[in-house]
Design a protein that fits this description.
This protein has 317 residues and is mostly helical. Helix content is 75%, strand content 2%. A 3-stranded mixed β-sheet has the order 2-1-3.
Length: 317
């Protein structure tokens, strides 16, 4: 007679329980709905304007349109399910749903880390080496950089998803988080996760810290170039734009790196959940505002599109 096995293996495909925010269902329902609607509206509007306006068919706006698609997909991996869970009070998520959510969330997050670095490089070439800009950032190079960002993110996620899927989970299989992600799943596993944690750390340094350092170096050089501008008004506008970009980028990279490279033993789960909300929910909302709505060309194109839409409606009456 075989001995009873008290360890529930992940291959049993049992449900997980997302602990989330148990005491804030009603408030979070409105928050998630409001946040998701704004993210969709802002990023869809930016993408549509960039793709339909020939004047915005430039490398900078090509990357911005990619960022808009990324942010729509990125927020869609977590916010709709969080909204449903908050409305229904449901905390269970199946094994397969959890892995699918984890795969796409990590894929899109990794792609965004790289794409933000590409965008910083684009701005560096445009400001610090403008005479070579059209050569360095030609259409082929732009497509290669954007495609590489997407592919790298999705390939990276395969490693984490496969490694996590092989872990055994015991007891109630509770995940102290509001969506499936690698760090909370590793903390819930009932086995030594040293290999998975090492992989997570190494890849996070490569896809998280390295792009962040690259972005900071790029902006330091950009600021140095801005200081050489003779016009005080020109310097002010350039600094205003750069500071806005840096704020959003810093929030994204710092909070994401905090979660993946590892919170300390003294960090509460509330801190981890808050940092997750900042990089998974807040930055997709701020990106279209900071990168586009403060841009004169995009604002002019948006205004023109809105006026055209209103005039069509008026003529149709």
């Amino acid at each position: 007679m075989e001995p009873e096995n008290h360890t529930t293996a992940v291959t049993d495909f049992m449900d997980f329980t997302l602990l989330g925010f148990p005491d804030w269902h009603v408030v979070l329902s409105f928050l998630f709905l409001f946040l998701y609607v704004l993210i969709l509206a802002g990023n869809i509007a930016i993408f549509a304007v960039i793709r339909t306006n020939p004047h915005l068919h430039k490398p900078m706006y090509f990357f911005l349109s990619n960022l808009s698609i990324l942010d729509i997909c990125y927020s869609s991996t977590t916010l709709p399910s969080m909204l449903v869970n908050s409305l229904t009070g449901r905390t269970a998520i199946s094994f397969h749903q959890c892995l699918v959510q984890l795969y796409f969330f990590v894929s899109l997050g990794g792609a965004e880390c790289l794409l933000l670095a590409v965008m910083a490089y684009d701005r560096y070439i445009a400001i610090c080496n403008p005479l070579r800009y059209s050569v360095v950032m030609n259409q082929i190079i732009c497509w290669q950089l954007a495609t590489s960002s997407w592919i790298s993110g999705f390939l990276n996620s395969v490693l984490h998803t496969v490694m996590t899927s092989k872990l055994p989970f015991c007891g109630d299989r509770e995940i102290n988080h509001y969506f499936c992600d690698v760090p909370p799943l590793l903390r819930s596993a009932c086995t030594n996760t040293y290999t998975s944690k090492t992989l997570l750390y190494v890849v996070s340094v490569f896809l998280g810290m390295s792009p962040f350092v690259f972005v900071m170096v790029s902006y330091i050089r950009i600021i140095a170039a801005i200081l050489k501008i003779q016009s005080a008004e020109g310097r002010r506008k350039a600094f205003s734009t750069c500071s806005s970009h840096l704020i959003v980028v810093t929030v994204f990279y710092v909070t994401a790196n905090f979660n993946y490279i590892g919170p300390g033993p003294g960090d509460s789960f509330d801190v981890v959940r808050l940092s997750s909300m900042l990089y998974s929910g807040l930055t997709p909302l701020l990106n279209p505002v900071i990168y586009c709505l403060r841009n004169k060309e995009v604002k002019a194109a948006l205004t023109k599109a809105i006026r055209k839409k209103l005039s069509v409606k008026d003529n149709g009456r």
